């Protein structure tokens, strides 16, 4: 009996660590379509393998119904900056995507020229009513490498010290330096993820990847083409295969469990409490660390199926279990796991 329980626990925690999130990869890149395939294949090296492809150049914009079926939309434009479907409704962004975000969606926006396509050369200031201001949560478009750095290009980008160390750093390129990637300034509460480096670079510290989330939506903005990352290097780990794959794994982890995006070495199972537990129709999740506020939580059955999802909208968040069967469940919030019992 003890061996059976041990085996069941091992299987359960394997299931908890394996992503069940469904991703729609929207390719909006007609410049070098091999990048679309390379990026898709790199996603498949991570734990996030439920990926559906949709190419806007052959199939047009995805429908609102299509988007609603996915936990995350990745909008990939690579190095393309001409007639992007992303901007089908002008600088407000396409309405299918904004409606998806307004209804609780998650977006990873990727492209070295996605801003240039709409705004041309830097600088530019964003304002209310524009996608870059309202959703990407950016205040301004400050520069492009090569164009605004004296023709140098940037040799590397460095992880911001406040994000999780799973992000590989520095990231270097398949070229000695890379041209035409953007530096921006996020709005208040936007998080810097990667910045130009090294320290000797004239525009060191300019932000080229940022993240924002609120109680409704989240957007990761990556203003370079990840397929230009040097894949011959690996930062001291065995799997995935290289820095590109590590970068994608870390970014997806950040998006799906954003409490992991902040250095959380001091966050343990004692950081939050669940009460009453055991319980009958509901339980509360209580915490006093604001790092956890607005973070996602998931409740798993004993066989690893997600039965509830939500956000920690208050320091004491009430979760109804009225429609769940009696038994044991596992609450997962980032790196924290708690056992929940319903009687």
* Overall morphology: globular
- Give the biggest beta sheet: 9 strands, mixed
How many strands?
Answer: 20
CATH secondary-structure class of the largest domain: Alpha Beta
CATH-wise, what's the superfamily of the largest domain?
A: Class I glutamine amidotransferase (GATase) domain
What would you call the quaternary organization?
A: single chain
CATH topological fold name of the largest domain: Rossmann fold
Mean pLDDT: 87
Count of distinct structural domains? 2
Kindly report how far apart the N and C termini lie.
22 Å
Number of helices: 8
Cα-based radius of gyration, to the nearest Å: 21 Å
Measured by DSSP, the beta-strand proportion falls in: 25-35%
Strand order of the largest sheet: 2-1-3-5-13-12-11-8-9
Helical fraction: 10-25%
| Uncertain segments | 1-19, 259-265
| H/E element sequence | HEHEHHEEHEHEHEEEEEEEHEEEEEEE
Fold topology:
Layout: H1 2-17, E1 23-27, H2 34-43, E2 51-55, H3 56-59, H4 64-68, E3 72-76, E4 88-91, H5 95-102, E5 106-110, H6 114-119, E6 124-125, H7 131-134, E7 138-144, E8 156-159, E9 171-172, E10 182-186, E11 191-197, E12 207-213, E13 218-222, H8 243-256, E14 272-275, E15 282-287, E16 296-300, E17 306-311, E18 316-320, E19 327-333, E20 336-342
Parallel strand pairs: 1-2, 1-3, 3-5, 5-13
Antiparallel strand pairs: 6-7, 7-10, 8-9, 8-11, 11-12, 12-13, 14-15, 15-18, 16-17, 16-19, 19-20
Protein model, in words:
With 343 residues, this protein is of the alpha+beta class. It has two domains: 2-261, 3-Layer(aba) Sandwich (Rossmann fold), CATH 3.40.50.880; 272-342, Sandwich (Immunoglobulin-like), CATH 2.60.40. It is built from eight helices and 20 strands. The chain has helices spanning 2-17, 34-43, 56-59, 64-68, 95-102, 114-119, 131-134, 243-256, and strands at residues 23-27, 51-55, 72-76, 88-91, 106-110, 124-125, 138-144, 156-159, 171-172, 182-186, 191-197, 207-213, 218-222, 272-275, 282-287, 296-300, 306-311, 316-320, 327-333, 336-342. The strands form four sheets. It has a nine-stranded mixed β-sheet with strand order 2-1-3-5-13-12-11-8-9. Residues 1-19 and 259-265 have low confidence and may be disordered.
């Amino acid at each position: 009996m003890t061996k059976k329980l041990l085996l069941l626990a091992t299987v359960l925690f394997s299931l908890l660590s394996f992503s069940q999130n469904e991703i729609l990869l929207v390719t909006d890149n007609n410049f070098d379509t091999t990048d679309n395939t390379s990026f898709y294949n790199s996603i498949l090296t991570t734990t996030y393998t439920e990926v559906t492809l949709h190419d806007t150049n052959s199939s047009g914009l995805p429908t609102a119904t299509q988007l609603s079926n996915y936990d995350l939309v990745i909008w990939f434009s690579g190095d393309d900056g001409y007639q992007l479907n992303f901007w089908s409704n002008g600088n407000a962004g396409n309405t299918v995507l904004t409606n998806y975000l307004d209804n609780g969606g998650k977006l990873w926006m990727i492209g070295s020229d996605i801003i240039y396509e709409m705004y041309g050369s830097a600088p530019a200031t964003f304002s209310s009513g524009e996608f870059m201001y309202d959703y990407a949560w950016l205040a301004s478009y400050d520069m492009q490498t090569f164009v605004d750095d004296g023709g140098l290009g940037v040799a590397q980008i460095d992880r911001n010290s406040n994000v999780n160390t799973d992000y590989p750093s520095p990231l270097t390129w398949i070229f000695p330096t890379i041209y035409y990637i953007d530096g921006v300034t996020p709005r208040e509460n936007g998080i810097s993820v990667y910045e130009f480096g090294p320290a000797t670079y004239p525009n060191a510290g300019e932000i080229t990847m940022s993240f924002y989330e609120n109680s409704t939506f989240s957007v990761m903005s990556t203003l370079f083409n990840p397929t230009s990352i040097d894949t011959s290097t690996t930062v001291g780990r065995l799997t995935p295969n290289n820095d590109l794959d590590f970068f994608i794994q870390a970014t997806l982890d950040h998006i799906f469990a954003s409490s992991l995006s902040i250095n959380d070495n001091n966050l343990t199972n004692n950081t939050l409490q669940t009460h009453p537990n055991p319980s009958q129709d509901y339980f509360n999740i209580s915490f006093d660390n604001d790092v956890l506020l607005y973070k996602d939580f998931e409740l798993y059955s004993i066989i690893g199926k997600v039965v509830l999802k939500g956000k920690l909208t208050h320091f004491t968040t009430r979760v109804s279990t009225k429609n769940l069967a009696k038994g044991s469940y596992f609450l997962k919030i980032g790196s924290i796991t708690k056992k929940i019992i319903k009687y």
